[in-house]
Write a structure and sequence with these properties.
Strands 6-7-8-3-9-10 form a 6-stranded mixed beta sheet. A hairpin with an 8-residue loop joins β1 and β2. It is α/β, with parallel strands linked by helices. It is 35% helix and 23% strand.
């Protein structure tokens, strides 16, 4: 039984030269757990917004074709009716949290519909989402993962048949990401909900989803069972999608070894163990390229910094206590740790957005405790975790040029054009940044952040929601900043990015730095990983299972380091 039917759907945003959705025909069966994949800007989010009436009733545009959800034509029904059929947790889920306490927010939608049992419905939704015991907490007491679960509970309280989640784990640590997907699995298997996720993390698709829809240029190219979909390695990579690392490694090795040609490609670590049975770790002395800098000049220095937040009830929340660390000129540093560890706060202290309660902070040798963010902005720039927070004007072009214009920068126009071209934003320059896709917003926010060529750049979750091409663009841009912006810090949950890019890793946990070193020091320390709630890339885990001495952080390293044992007769 089809719960969603889409026929000949085409949609264009106002003023857009080209349609975002083009002749879409798609059906979704009741009880499916469906992943929608595709590169940034291919129309994934736009497609899903047609399922609950946001398009065309709230976001207007030129729409042709028909969308039927639970037997209702979305053009003919109000959003209020459709939201009880298809619940939606948006990419910017914080904007769905509108009430001060957890139960109040979870039950608010039902109260809005004048449901007499709104409180019971809210409690039931919180129970399904694993938030029992937090009913009376204020929403700001929740971690990022718990806040995401609360947004899900708010949608679930109306008991919709369909739940849609746009990038549900983009900014979450592994523990919270696992929790989100375990909740979705329970809702799908034990409560009969049809689940649709827009997802870039193919490892989670392999583990949880039943089917996959592949979007390209505004049109679904195919719909396949997850295993079959994820094994289309070359097609996915050409579309800037990351297949699971174990799948990519097996695919490359399979091409060069005739005896493996008929084996099914693995899509999980467990399957990878069976596929690579009989392989040995034979390291080829792979030497990682390091930075040319040997500078000991401190660009950022924390001396016994402490910080607490006031709370409405209870004791102040201690974020940092006597934190001391130095970041040297030219270093490429990744700051990692679980949600709530203080990564974003750490960066905001450097930019003057937050002031320490105790201790000293120095920027290029100058004490900055009392400096304003405006004064510091020409030396140090922060690109926020939520890219839409970087946009204050009515177009991307104006956002990028704004800081240069107010400072009368001589080459403002040419610099703006250069950044628009570098980040593939030429055709989007007149668009409001807040109306772009997640990946497009990331590119634009980074362009805004580096417009003034700051000596120090801070990036908060820069690769969340990104496809391969956009990730590579960001990596390329960071390498090209050498000589202008030499010192870069990235706060991230993306361990593939950490292993490929960072020369130094800081692990935050419980208000202190519990580890500081290169990737071998960090990821080989099981206790540090467990305490901080971090998880190395899957290919590293697979390598260590095959041989505990293995140190492979990328698929390339794995392919070069593992060989199949030959049996002599």
């Amino acid at each position: 039984m089809n719960i969603i039917e889409i026929k000949d759907l085409t949609f264009s945003y106002p003023g857009a030269k080209y349609a975002t959705l083009k002749n879409v025909n798609l059906t979704v069966e009741k009880g499916d757990f469906l992943a929608i994949i595709g590169n940034n800007g291919c129309g994934k989010s736009t497609l899903c917004k047609t399922l609950n009436g946001i398009i065309p009733h709230f976001i207007v545009g030129d729409m042709a074709g028909e969308v039927t959800v639970c037997g209702l034509n979305t053009k003919d029904e109000e959003i209020g009716v459709l939201s009880q059929k298809a619940g939606y947790v948006y990419q910017d889920f914080e904007n769905q949290i509108i009430r001060p306490t957890v139960l109040d927010d979870a039950s608010y939608a039902c109260l809005n519909y004048a449901m007499k049992d709104h409180r019971t419905r809210g409690l039931r939704a919180l129970e399904k989402c694993g938030l029992v015991g937090r009913e009376n907490d204020f929403i700001w007491q929740l971690s990022g993962g718990q806040t995401h679960l609360l947004a899900l509970a708010g949608a679930l309280s109306l008991d919709p048949e369909i739940l849609i989640l746009d990038e549900p784990i983009a900014q979450l640590d592994p523990a919270h990401a696992d929790k989100i997907y375990e909740v979705l699995k329970d809702l799908n298997e034990n409560h009969g909900k049809t689940i649709i996720v827009i997802e870039h993390h193919t490892e989670y698709i392999a583990q949880y989803c039943k089917n996959v829809v592949f979007m390209k240029d505004g049109t679904p190219q195919w719909k396949l069972p997850s295993r079959e979909a994820l094994c289309r390695v070359e097609e996915l990579e050409q579309a800037d999608i990351f297949p699971p690392q174990v799948t990519v490694a097996a695919h490359e090795i399979q091409k060069s070894q005739e005896t493996l040609r008929n084996k099914k490609l693995p899509v999980t670590i467990e399957e990878g163990m069976r596929f690579f049975e009989g392989f040995r770790y034979l390291p080829n002395d792979f030497i990682r390229k390091k930075s040319n800098t040997n500078s000991t000049k401190s660009m950022i220095s924390f001396k016994n910094v402490s910080l607490s937040y006031r709370t409405v009830k209870g004791e102040p929340k201690q974020v940092f206590k006597d934190l001391s660390v130095d970041i040297n000129d030219g270093e490429k540093v990744a700051v990692i740790g679980s949600n709530g560890a203080g990564k974003s706060t750490f960066m905001k202290l450097m930019t003057g957005l937050i002031k320490p309660a105790d201790g000293e902070i120095y920027l290029d040798g100058r004490r900055i405790n009392g400096d304003s963010p405006e004064r510091l902005s020409e030396t140090i720039s922060l690109v926020y975790q939520n890219p839409e927070d970087m946009f204050i004007k009515d177009s991307i072009e104006n956002d990028i040029s704004y800081a240069m214009r107010v400072r009368d920068t001589p080459d403002c126009k040419s610099r703006t054009d250069e950044l628009l071209k570098a980040f593939r934003l030429d055709t989007l320059k007149d668009r409001d940044g807040r109306l772009l896709s997640g990946g497009q917003m990331r590119r634009a926010s980074l362009a805004v952040g580096i417009a003034l060529k700051p000596p120090i750049l801070l990036l908060d979750e820069p690769t969340a929601n990104l496809d391969i091409a956009t990730r590579h663009e960001i990596m390329r841009t960071l390498s090209e900043l050498k000589g202008v912006t030499d010192t870069v810090l990235i706060a991230t949950h993306d361990m593939q990015l950490v292993c490929q890019w960072a020369e130094r890793i800081l692990v935050l946990c419980g208000g202190r730095i519990i580890a500081d070193g290169e990737r071998d020091e960090i990821f080989s320390n099981r206790r540090v990983c467990e305490i901080a709630g971090i998880r190395p890339p899957d290919i590293f885990t697979l390598g260590r299972i095959i041989d505990p001495s293995a140190r492979c952080y990328t698929t390339d390293e794995f392919e070069r380091s593992f060989r199949r044992e030959t049996v002599c007769v």
